[in-house]
Amino acid sequence: EYMGTALGLRPPMSSQELDDGIALTTAAGAPTPSPSPPQQPTEQGPAASAQEPRSWVLDGLFVLLGVGILLPWNAVVNSSEFFRQRLNAKAIAFAFSVAYMVPNLFGLLVVLAVEQHVSSRLRTLAGFSVYIFIMIVLPLQRSYALTISLVALLGFLDAFVQSAIFSVAAMFGQRQIEGMMIGLGVAGLLVTVLYIFALYVSSSAGAAETLAAKLFFTSAGIVLAACLGASVVVYRLLVRRQDRLAAVEIVGMEGFGGIERLNSEFGPAPPPSPSP
Fold it and tell me: DSSP for 210-252?
């Protein structure tokens, strides 16, 4: 009716005609749409109704990913005295900083150029896999050049991993971004606690530095392995959330048939949380 009116094929219907048409449709057995209750604004935006319920598990996954982003660098820079003794190299901490930060800046420029062609999932999973390899072989090196090269590779990959995880966290919401920032702080705290423990149980400063370095790289390897598994879970949740949002758009176009299809594929939507 409205299409005909818009095309000028017939005059617009009066309000009485619309009421008569609704009455006839109801009498014929067609469902009468009930007015939807007003939506309460939420901090997650208009897509909140299609989002999964708030989950502390999801928040914890992003805290873990935040730890995994910064822990490898903290393990390297806090082991500088260990590498100075092992490689007999002076100013090793300064060399680590330059070898890490310069490739990291270059990596960010590369990310800007290739982000449309390389998925964030590939960047995350490949980056964490190489992180684990570096954490295993780096404390075993006795070559200064190879040690610096591995640190440079670590800095280059950090640009890819960190940008990918931040973009995924932004797709979920503000809480997940905050969880990542908490994880960055936990990474520094973890290294500090391990270093204090090494000083407490060691009999000399040299032994403490060696033990601390072993604790740093061992804990980093374990955390990174957990981050690899957490990344797989997070990306699966992201795909499901995007499918849910697409289904909600289908509901808007197909009406009651779209609602039935949405419920059959994803289950009924969770009830809205009560307003305080």
Answer: HHHHHHHHHHHHHHHHHHHHHHHHHHHHHHHHHHHHHHHHHHH
Render the burial of 106-140: b for 16+ CB within 10 Å, e for the rest: ebeeebeeeeeeeebbebbbebbebbbebbeebbe
- Cα 13 to Cα 22, 59, 116, distances in angstroms: 12, 53, 50
| Residue that the structure tokens 């890819």 belong to | 160
* Residues 6 or more apart in contact with residue 108 via CB below 8 angstroms: 159, 163
Ordered alpha helix ranges (H), the chain: 2-6, 15-27, 56-77, 80-87, 92-114, 120-137, 144-172, 174-201, 205-254, 256-266
- In three-state secondary structure terms, 272 is coil
Tens of pLDDT, residue by residue over 182-240, are: 999 999 999 999 999 998 888 787 888 899 999 999 999 999 999 999 999 999 988 88
DSSP letters for 33-48: PPPPPPPPP-TT-GGG
Q: 201 to each of 198, 212, 215, how far by Cα in Å?
A: 5, 10, 12
In the three-class reduction of DSSP (H, G, I as helix; E, B as strand; rest coil), residue 119 is classed as: coil
Distance, in Å, from the CA atom of 51 to the CA atom of 77, rounded to the nearest integer, reads 40
Four-residue CA torsion sign, 111, 115, 120, 122? negative
Instruction: Let me know: does 60 contact 179? Beta carbons within 8 Å.
Output: yes
This prediction has a pTM of 0.69
pLDDT, one tens digit per residue, over 179-188 is 999 999 999 9
